[in-house]
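[audit] Reproducing an earlier prediction to check determinism. Same input, same settings, fresh worker. If the tokens differ from the archived copy the diff job will pick it up downstream; this log only records the rerun itself.
[audit] input (370 residues):
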Amino acid sequence: MARDFYQVLGVPDSATPEEIKKAYRRLAKQHHPDANPNNPQAAERFKEVSEAHAVLSDADKRKHYDQMRRLGAFDGGGGFRRQGAGGARPGPASGGPGGGTEGFDFSDIGSFGLGDIFSSIFGKGGRAETEAAEAIETVVEIPFRVAALGGKVPVRLPLNETCRTCTGSGAAPGAKITTCPECNGRGNVTFGQGGFAVSRPCPQCRGKGRIPSAPCPACGGAGEVRHEREVLITVPPGTETGAKVRLKGQGQSAAPGLPPGDIVVTFQVPPDRFFHRDGLDLVCEVPINLAQAVLGTRLRVRTLDGKKVVLKVPAGTQPGRKFRIKGLGIEKGDRRGDQLVQVQVQIPATLTPEQEGLLKQFAELTGLAY
């Protein structure tokens, strides 16, 4: 019986996208094949979790899936039954003698309004779209200046590639390869009820349709090995923490005949020691002494591109005053912010007797109380 995707992830059907993502990440980390070597049950569980996440994390697919679910496609009262090499086993609501469903095309039930629902989630003939490689999600920390100005950053990602020793068969050199008895060489097993059928990769042969007498020593029978690839990622100007980019077709290798998956990059921008953002404006603080605040001065202020501009500070400048330098903020599209320079007047912590005397004379001449 095919499990309910909500049950697979352990979330209620009212779960938010964030709750679904959190549950998926926890389960994927727990059952990932890399964390459970030589454990086919963990690998199967990982595929099941990935399949559920692929549907429930997509708003349109989830909507269609929920429609199917409300129609009883995944309930506990005789839901999808498993179909092995010998065809579908009869169920309580079978569509005919023996309940055969093999080769059924979901588009045939369009008159009931269900064809598009099944096809949009599982594809023609019940083959799951989730056989395509899952998108790889990664978080990349980029310097503040690169995030503001844009640029390119290299990222190393762990990816799977076809094992060169066994060329993806999973068999040791010279090993005998036999047809998988579970799926009869099809590479998938089918769950069906009535006129419906849903296929998924066979857990015994991992979707290959064949089983070797001895696993490949290089990949442990998986048919693929882990390696690192360096990807150059373009950072758009004005990028903030949480922004994402999707690199189409540059991710994990998929099943034969299917395109590779995508890479989804989430950017994280650490604080800068000098600048901080206020929308498209850049704000910075510069210290000035008491004499500069009282008498006025000229300051050389660093800008985002590393150059310096001269800022005129007029006499009588108060602590915390901000000066605006037009057009030196962050550029995004056809807009560009300004650079705001806030002055902080530094007061000497101690004075010599002579300095204290002179300051008192100044206060008396200007009528300042002390």
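[audit] rerun output stored. Observation attached for the diff report: Helices lie at 5-9, 17-31, 40-56, 59-70, 115-122, 144-149, 290-295, 353-366.
[audit] end
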